[in-house]
Design goal:
The complex is a heterodimer of chains A (about 270) and B (about 290). Chain A has helices spanning about 1-30, 35-40, 55-60, 65-95, 100-110, 120-130, 135-145, 150-160, 165-170, 175-190, 190-205, 210-215, 225-235, 240-260, 260-274. Chain A is an all-alpha fold and about 270 residues long. Chain A has a single domain (about 55-270), classed as MetI-like fold. The longest helix of chain A has about 30 residues, at about 65-95. The two termini of chain A are about 40 Å apart. The mean pLDDT of chain B is about 90. The chains are: A mainly alpha (about 270), B mainly alpha (about 290).
Chain lengths: ~270, ~290
């Protein structure tokens, strides 16, 4: 009896979770093909036909393509820069002993404890003072910094698993420090970089509050802000609003489905050891 | 090897140190330094001692509401949210036929931007065409149709529901930890006649203490920066019903241009987070041996 009850409870829980996760997407996806009249009269039903005019309209009336390009630029550069810098730092911190190392590690892990929101005004000030306000490069630098604790953690944990003999034999063959890092360490650390890279990319792609504070014109705004824009400017054109929402969501879902194992192992990477 | 490599070590560390200084260290110095000043845009900061902090704690109803909401959300997130994630992880770990599908789908709301999640729920709960109200009407309960995000009675609950059930990160972390429990432990428990429920209650969950503690910290602290969904859905309103500390910082700093005051809220937020992390570390004895 108890066993049966638990079974019902279990499946009920799973179904509820799946519905809660998938329901809103499917509903908005369906609605994105409807006309305004259909949305208001037939909110739960199937669209009368699958027309893409809402999507065409979304791209036409809002600078979504500009936002898209900006997001891609910020995502790629924010990720590559983060991986390069933190790969280098993580390697040195994982491999060598030197004075001040403890202090440095302490300072870096402190950054995990500072909520981004507390830094809103100070970072706005810094970015402004550097003349990077409303420029993509400003966002790239800030996001590269935000990914510091997570990337450092994932990458240096990965470097620790590489046997030291690899480098020693490289040195014996006459390779320099830089050659050893770029030719030996980087290639065998691909999984570590993949994991840190996906996490960092999603951070850049989804970030909202600093994007809204550090930019002002459409020239440098990113995709999450497109929705904010839609909410205020086209609030009565529901079909277009739904299409715009899907346009923002679909790339994240695609990236996730393609790199699913990488994301999952990335999230789990430190957990077991930590 | 170290002596010879000293130059390279410096070279490899320098960019990250510069980044850390630029993004974190400078911000912290500005934050603490100016939290004792009266400072608005275009003026230079004027030292006023503890005045900002005194005002925060004695004469600022908006701040009190924001701090209270933040506190409630931290508590909900580190209990109900983590519990949902843990239960789901244990169910998925039984690896029944649907587990990969369920894990994938559950990740969706966690992988897309908070602004998009906010938009989804804004549409779902719209009083004119939202699915929730349409379903309510289907059951003949027309009074149920209301503006969930704008109504004082429901706004807080509605906003909370946009993140509380979505604990996929917790689920993944705990699933990984369960996978690391040796199979032999389950087998010997089964041979002793223990049921699945008992195995989970008395063997699996106690072994997850460390990781559950980590999840409580991660989920709780994520509430200290929550801004995108709230800004998208209610903007902190109605009134200040769904205002939290990040939105209050945003409001005082960039809309009221009250920099010094806003930074004293920032200092409070950091202190709040540190106390929460220390409490959790002690509560779950994180880092100490499990056996």
């Amino acid at each position: 009896m108890l066993k049966k009850g638990l079974g019902v409870l279990k499946y009920g829980f799973v179904i509820l979770i799946v519905l809660l996760s998938l329901g809103p997407f499917l509903w908005v996806l369906l609605a994105s093909f409807k006309t305004n009249a259909e949305i208001l009269s037939n909110s739960l039903g199937w669209p009368s036909s699958f027309r893409f005019s809402n999507y065409a309209m979304a791209f036409k009336i809002a600078p979504i393509s500009r936002f898209y390009i900006n997001s891609v630029i910020v995502g790629i550069f924010g990720t590559v820069l983060n991986l390069l810098l933190l790969g280098m730092a993580g390697y040195v911190l994982a491999r060598f002993q030197f004075r001040g190392k403890k202090l440095l590690m302490g300072a870096f892990s402190l950054s995990l404890l500072i909520p981004g929101a507390a830094m809103l005004q100070p970072l706005y000030l810094t970015v402004n003072a550097l003349g990077l306000y409303d420029k993509l490069i400003g966002l790239i630098i800030v996001y590269t910094g935000f990914g510091l604790p997570v990337s450092l953690y994932i990458l240096s944990s990965y470097f620790l698993t590489i046997p030291k003999e690899m480098e020693e034999s490289a040195y014996l063959d006459g390779a320099s420090f830089i050659q050893t890092f770029f030719r030996i360490i980087l290639p065998i650390s691909k999984p570590g970089f993949g994991t840190a890279g996906v996490m960092q990319f999603l951070l850049c792609w989804n970030e909202f509050q600093f994007a809204i504070i550090l930019t002002t014109g459409n020239q440098s705004r990113t995709l999450p802000l497109a929705l904010y824009y839609f909410k205020s400017q086209f609030a009565s054109d529901y079909g277009v609003m739904f299409a715009a929402t899907m346009v923002v969501i679909i790339p994240s879902i695609l990236v996730y489905i393609l790199l699913q194992e990488q994301v999952v192992s990335g999230l789990a990477a430190g957990a077991v050891k930590g | 090897m170290v002596r010879k490599n000293r130059g390279y070590i410096t070279l490899f560390l320098l960019p990250t140190v510069a980044l850390f200084i630029l993004v974190y260290a400078v911000s912290l110095v500005i934050l603490f330094g100016t939290s004792f000043t009266e400072w608005s845009a275009g003026r230079s900061p004027k030292f006023i001692g503890l005045t900002n902090y005194i005002q925060l704690f004695t004469d600022d109803a908006d701040f009190r509401q924001s701090a209270l909401n933040t506190g409630i959300w931290v508590v909900l997130q580190s209990t109900i949210h983590v519990a949902i994630g843990t239960i789901f992880a244990i169910i998925l770990s039984m690896k029944e036929f649907y587990w990969k599908f369920a894990r994938t789908v559950y990740m969706f709301p966690n992988i897309i931007s908070g602004a998009a999640v906010g938009m989804l729920f804004l549409c779902m709960l719209n009083p004119d065409f939202g699915a929730v109200n349409s379903i309510a009407r289907l059951f003949g309960n027309a009074d149920f149709s209301q503006n969930w995000f704008m109504d004082y009675a429901t706004a807080f609950f509605s906003v909370t529901m946009t993140w509380l059930p979505y604990a996929a990160v917790v689920t993944i972390l705990i699933l990984a930890e369960i996978a690391a429990i040796p199979e032999s432990l389950y087998e010997s428990a089964r041979i002793d006649g223990a049921s699945t429920l008992k195995i989970n209650l008395y063997i699996v969950i106690p072994m997850l203490r460390n990781i559950i503690g980590t999840c409580v910290i991660l989920s709780g602290t994520s509430m200290l920066q929550k801004m995108d969904i709230i800004l998208m859905t209610t903007g902190g309103g109605p009134g200040n019903e769904t205002m939290n500390l990040p939105i209050y910082i945003y409001k005082t700093a960039l809309m009221d241009n009250n920099f010094g005051y806003s930074n004293s809220v920032g200092v409070f937020l950091i202190g709040f987070g540190l106390i929460f992390v220390l409490l959790c570390r002690n509560l779950f004895r994180i880092g100490s041996s499990q056996h």
